[in-house]
Design brief:
The protein contains 8 helices and 33 strands. The protein has about 675 residues and is mainly beta.
C-alpha cells in the first residue's frame, strides 16, 4: 500500500514541484545588514549549499544536524521528518516527503535541489574514501576600487598615519577539500586593500590566515574540529558564531538551529575559535568539549594613576591592519576560551546544559559612561545556560535560560504551531536583564547583542491558495536601561505585512509594508535634558520577477521610505531598479545587469538592496542621498571544473563631490569597484 501511495504522490506532483526559490532570501540578508549596519564575511552557509547542489544530502542517512544546517526547515518540520523515518523506515523516493506532516509543496520545492534518496552505505565502507574520494577546490578573488582614496595619495613620511602603505587590491585565497559531510579541511589567506603583502608589517604574506580540519561520524566521535571552528549553543544567549537571521518576512524563522561545532574557513577575522573541539555521542547522550587560544585586536590604554596598569577599552572587529595605529592594535588581547555542552535527546524533547569560560591577558575596562555601567569587564568572564525543546503533535516549544559571570539572567522562549495545512503561527518571548553580558552571542532580539531587552514577537503565515502566501509579524519590546545615544529606558514596536503571489513557474511578485517606531535622543538646542520622542519609520516595497524564456529573467523593485514622517527630523527615500538576468541552461556563459536609481533625504532614510555577486559573495549596500547604481556580473565556465567571474559596479552621485570619510575619502562623485574570481575544482 505504501508503494502505491508513493506512486500516486509522484504522479500528482509532477507539475507542482519545480524550480526552487533562493534558499537564503534576499530580504533576510537585507534585514540583517540593516539591523547590524554591516555585512557578514562568513560565507560558510553559501559554500555548504553550493556543495549540496552538486552532492545532494542523502535523506536516508541525514541526521537532525544535517537538516538544521540546510536552514530551510522549521524545527517542527525536522522533528516530523525524523519521526516519519523512524516509523516507516528508509525513503524510496523524494516525493514521499509530501507524506510528512507540515511538509507542504513550498517546503519541498526549497529543499529538493539539495537532497536525494539513495541506499545507505556503511560508514566503515566509506572510511577509506574520505581522503581520496572528495572534491578539491582552489578559489582566488581580487577586488579593486578604481578611484584612489585619500589614504593612497598622501604618502607623507613625516606622518605615517596619514596613508595606507599597502596596495589598493583586496585578495582572498582559499583551498578546500570536502568529502560529503564527513571530512573537510582547508586553508584561507586574506589581504585587505591598504595592507602590505610580503613586506613591511606583513612579511608573512597575507594579513590573515585560517586553517581547519573537521571530521564527522568516526565511531563514537560525532564531530572533531582542529584549527578554526565556530561554536553555536542553545538559542544564542551565551554563544552563537555562525550566520543567524533575525526578524524578516519569513515569520517562522525564529529558532536558532545548528550543530554545536562547525568548520570555519571564511574571510572574517573575528567571530570564530582557534583550537580543538570534539563531540561524543552514546545512544541518547551527547557531550561537546572545546578549547581555543587566540589573539584579538583591541584598543589599549596605560593607566598612569594605577602603577601604569595596561587595560583594554574595546575590542576591534574591522580586521583592518593598514595604518600604524591599526597595526599597533593587532593581537593586543590574548583570549583563552573553553566550554562544554551536555545533551540528552528523547523522541519528543531534549535538554542541554552549556557553559563557556573566557580568560583575558589584559583586563577589560570600558569608558566611564552611563551606558557602559554593566559592560563586560575584568580578566575573565563566564556564561552558563540550559536549553530545551518539546514537540507535541503540531506544536514545538523551545528556549534557553542563561546566567552570566555576575549572575545576571536572560531567557528566550519560543513556540511554533502548525494550526492547519495552510496556517502556521510563531511566538518568541525574551527577557534579558539590563546587566546581562555575553561575548560572541547572537539571539533572536531587537538589539544586535542579547542584553537590556524585554519583548514579545508573534508571527503568522497563511497560504489561502497554492499561489498565495501571506506573512505578518508584530514585535513589541522595551529596553529597561539606557543605550548608546539613548539616555533613558525606552520602548519600541515593529510590524510587517507581506503578500507573495506566484501564479506560475514563470512569474512571482511580492509587496510588503513595514512600520517601526523607537524612542531616540533628540536635542537640537543642546539642552541639559534631552527629549526622547518616538521616531516612526515606514517602508513600502513591491518586487516583480518574470522568466521570459528559459534564457532570460527580468526583475524590478520599487521601494519608498518615510523616516519621522511629519516630525522635525522628517526624511523620505525612494529606490527603484531593473535587473536583466541571462542564464541559458547547459551553456557556459551567464550574466546579470542592474540599473538603479535612488534618492533619499539623508542617512536616516537609507534603503538597503541585495545585489548578485560572484560565487560565495554578495553585496548589500546602504543607499542614501541621490544617485545611480549599476553593475554587471559575468560568469563563464571554461571547463566543467574551471570557472571565472567578472563583476564591475559603480555608484554615481548627483549631489556629491566627496565620497567616504577619513583616509577612505574619494574626490569626485563616483566610486567604481572591479572584482575578478577564479575557481578550480579537481
Amino acid at each position: 500500500m505504501r508503494y502505491l501511495y508513493i506512486i500516486l504522490l509522484n504522479l500528482s506532483s509532477l507539475f507542482a514541484i519545480g524550480q526552487t526559490e533562493t534558499p537564503i532570501t534576499e530580504q533576510q540578508l537585507e534585514n540583517l545588514a540593516d539591523a547590524e549596519q554591516a555585512e557578514t564575511e562568513d560565507d560558510s552557509y553559501l559554500q555548504s549549499l553550493n556543495y549540496l547542489r552538486r552532492n545532494p544530502l542523502n535523506l536516508n542517512r541525514s541526521d537532525e544536524n544535517d537538516l538544521k544546517d540546510l536552514r530551510l526547515l522549521t524545527a517542527l518540520q525536522i522533528q516530523n521528518f525524523i519521526r516519519y523515518r523512524s516509523v516507516f523506515g528508509y525513503f524510496i523516493n523524494v516525493y514521499e516527503l509530501q507524506a510528512i506532516p507540515t511538509w507542504d509543496v513550498e517546503t519541498i520545492q526549497k529543499v529538493l535541489p539539495f537532497v536525494t534518496v539513495k541506499p545507505v552505505i556503511n560508514l566503515k565502507e566509506e572510511a577509506g574514501k574520505r581522503f581520496r574520494g572528495g572534491n578539491h577546490s582552489l578559489l582566488l578573488r581580487e577586488t579593486y576600487i578604481l578611484e584612489k582614496s585619500r589614504g593612497f595619495k598622501q604618502k607623507d613620511s613625516a606622518n605615517a598615519t596619514s596613508f595606507y602603505p599597502g596596495s589598493r587590491d583586496k585578495i582572498f585565497l582559499r583551498y578546500k577539500y570536502v568529502y560529503k559531510n564527513l571530512l573537510q579541511y582547508g586553508l584561507v589567506g586574506e589581504k585587505d586593500a591598504g595592507e602590505q603583502f610580503f613586506k613591511g608589517n606583513q612579511k608573512q604574506g597575507f594579513d590573515f590566515y585560517s586553517a581547519h580540519l573537521f571530521a564527522r561520524n568516526i565511531g563514537a566521535i560525532k564531530a572533531l574540529a582542529l584549527g578554526d571552528f565556530t561554536v553555536n549553543l542553545g538559542q544564542g544567549l551565551i554563544q552563537w558564531q555562525s550566520l543567524a537571521f533575525k526578524k524578516s518576512p519569513d515569520a517562522l524563522n525564529i529558532k536558532r538551529q545548528s550543530a554545536i561545532l562547525r568548520p570555519y574557513n571564511s574571510a572574517g577575522e573575528i567571530n570564530f575559535h582557534r583550537g580543538v573541539g570534539i563531540t561524543l555521542q552514546k545512544k541518547r547522550w551527547e557531550a561537546t568539549l572545546f578549547g581555543s587560544l587566540r589573539k584579538l585586536d583591541a584598543n589599549t590604554i596605560i593607566d598612569t594613576t594605577a602603577n601604569y596598569e595596561e587595560f583594554i577599552t574595546s575590542f576591534l572587529t574591522s580586521g583592518y591592519h593598514r595604518t600604524v595605529s591599526e597595526v599597533a592594535d593587532k593581537g593586543m588581547q590574548k583570549q583563552l576560551a573553553f566550554g562544554a555542552n551536555l545533551t540528552y535527546r528523547a523522541n519528543k524533547w531534549h535538554l542541554s546544559a552549556n557553559t563557556i569560560q573566557y580568560k583575558f591577558d589584559l583586563p577589560v575596562k570600558k569608558s566611564a559612561r552611563p551606558y557602559n555601567q554593566f559592560s563586560l569587564s575584568g580578566n575573565r568572564w563566564a556564561n552558563y545556560s540550559v536549553d530545551y525543546s518539546y514537540t507535541w503533535r503540531n506544536v514545538h516549544f523551545f528556549g534557553e535560560t542563561a546566567l552570566d559571570y555576575k549572575n545576571h539572567h536572560a531567557t528566550v522562549n519560543g513556540l511554533l504551531v502548525s494550526m492547519d495545512a495552510r496556517a502556521d503561527f510563531s511566538l518568541v518571548y525574551r527577557n534579558i536583564s539590563k546587566a546581562y553580558q555575553s561575548l560572541n552571542a547572537n539571539a533572536f532580539t531587537e538589539n544586535t547583542f542579547p542584553n537590556n531587552e524585554k519583548g514579545l514577537y508573534a508571527g503568522l503565515t497563511l497560504r489561502p491558495a497554492s499561489a498565495i502566501r501571506i506573512d505578518a509579524y508584530a514585535d513589541i519590546y522595551r529596553f529597561p536601561y539606557l543605550k548608546f545615544n539613548v539616555d533613558a529606558p525606552t520602548t519600541g514596536r515593529d510590524f510587517l505585512l507581506q503578500l507573495y503571489y506566484k501564479p506560475n513557474k514563470q512569474a512571482e511578485v511580492y509587496t510588503r509594508y513595514r512600520t517601526e517606531t523607537k524612542q531616540q535622543n533628540y536635542n537640537p538646542d543642546d539642552l541639559t535634558m534631552k527629549e526622547l520622542p518616538f521616531i516612526p519609520k515606514q517602508s513600502w516595497r513591491t518586487q516583480f520577477a518574470m522568466k521570459i524564456n528559459p534564457k532570460v529573467t527580468v526583475r524590478s523593485r520599487f521601494e519608498l521610505m518615510w523616516y519621522d514622517k511629519h516630525g522635525p527630523q522628517a526624511e523620505n527615500g525612494f529606490l527603484t531598479y531593473f535587473d536583466f538576468i541571462y542564464n541559458p541552461p547547459l551553456k557556459p556563459l551567464s550574466a546579470t545587469v542592474r540599473l538603479q536609481y535612488f534618492e533619499t533625504g539623508g542617512y536616516n532614510s537609507r534603503i538597503y538592496a541585495y545585489e548578485n555577486d560572484v560565487l560565495y559573495s554578495y553585496s548589500i549596500p546602504a543607499f542614501y542621498n541621490k544617485g545611480w547604481r549599476t553593475y554587471l556580473n559575468i560568469n563563464y565556465s571554461f571547463r566543467k571544473n574551471f570557472q571565472a567571474w567578472f563583476r564591475i559596479s559603480q555608484t554615481l552621485y548627483k549631489d556629491k563631490n566627496l565620497i567616504g570619510t577619513g583616509l577612505d575619502e574619494i574626490t569626485g562623485n563616483h566610486r567604481t569597484e572591479v572584482k575578478l574570481q577564479l575557481l578550480y575544482d579537481f
